[in-house]
């Protein structure tokens, strides 16, 4: 009987340690967004795990919406799995929950992507904006948005 109690305690301790270890493995990403010109609308921080939809399709990624603040906005993604990601940020001034574009597809609202990539005649590619979230390491990015 004593052996059964000892085994039960050992199993409980192992389970508790396993759960603590799992919570320690969830990674975080903090994104500091600057360059916001108006306190109007919202800032969308869109975290893409794959190239699909990057950078402007806001229906594909993990999204955080924050009220626009002309000083800066901070988006925090938690419980990420280690791996490669790309991030896009848009200032949705008119509140329609999408990135507005002109007749040729160029954004008419301020935007930015991770690594602050800004090609002149095309959208940034997922690989250009790619960064790695490593196990046991929280990540911080600074994104400058502009039109």
Specify the number of helices: 2
C-alpha-based Rg, rounded: 20 Å
Low-confidence blocks of residues: 3-24
Overall CATH architecture? Sandwich
Total tally of structural domains: 1
Annotation, overall tally of beta strands: 8
Shape, per Cα inertia axes: globular
Order of helices and strands: HEEEEEEHEE
Mean pLDDT: 86
By secondary-structure content and strand pairing, the structural class works out as: alpha+beta
Helix content: 10-25%
**Largest sheet report:** 5 strands, antiparallel
Strand composition percent: 25-35%
SSE arrangement:
Layout: H1 2-24, E1 27-34, E2 42-48, E3 62-67, E4 73-80, E5 83-92, E6 111-113, H2 126-129, E7 131-133, E8 139-144
Task: Please describe what this structure looks like.
This protein is α+β, with helices and mostly antiparallel strands and 147 residues long. The protein has one domain: Sandwich (Immunoglobulin-like). The chain is built from two helices and eight strands. The protein has helices at 2-24, 126-129; strands spanning 27-34, 42-48, 62-67, 73-80, 83-92, 111-113, 131-133, 139-144. The strands form two sheets. Strands 2, 3, 5, 6 and 7 form a five-stranded antiparallel sheet that branches. The longest helix has 23 residues, at 2-24. It is globular, with a radius of gyration of 20 Å. The chain starts with a helix and ends with a strand. 23% of the residues are buried. Mean pLDDT is 86; it is low at 3-24.
């Amino acid at each position: 009987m004593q052996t059964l109690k000892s085994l039960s305690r050992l199993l409980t301790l192992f389970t508790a340690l396993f759960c603590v270890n799992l919570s320690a493995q969830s990674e975080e990403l903090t994104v500091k967004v600057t360059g916001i010109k108006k306190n109007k609308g919202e800032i969308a921080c869109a975290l893409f795990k794959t190239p699909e939809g990057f950078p402007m399709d806001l229906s594909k990624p993990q999204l955080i919406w924050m009220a626009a603040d002309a000083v800066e906005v901070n988006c925090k993604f938690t419980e990420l799995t280690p791996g490669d990601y790309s991030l896009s940020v848009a200032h949705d001034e008119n509140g329609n929950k999408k990135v507005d574009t002109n007749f040729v597809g160029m954004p008419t609202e301020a935007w930015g992507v991770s690594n602050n990539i800004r090609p002149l005649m095309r959208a940034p590619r997922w690989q250009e904006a790619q960064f790695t979230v490593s196990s046991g390491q929280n990540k911080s990015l600074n994104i400058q948005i502009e039109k």
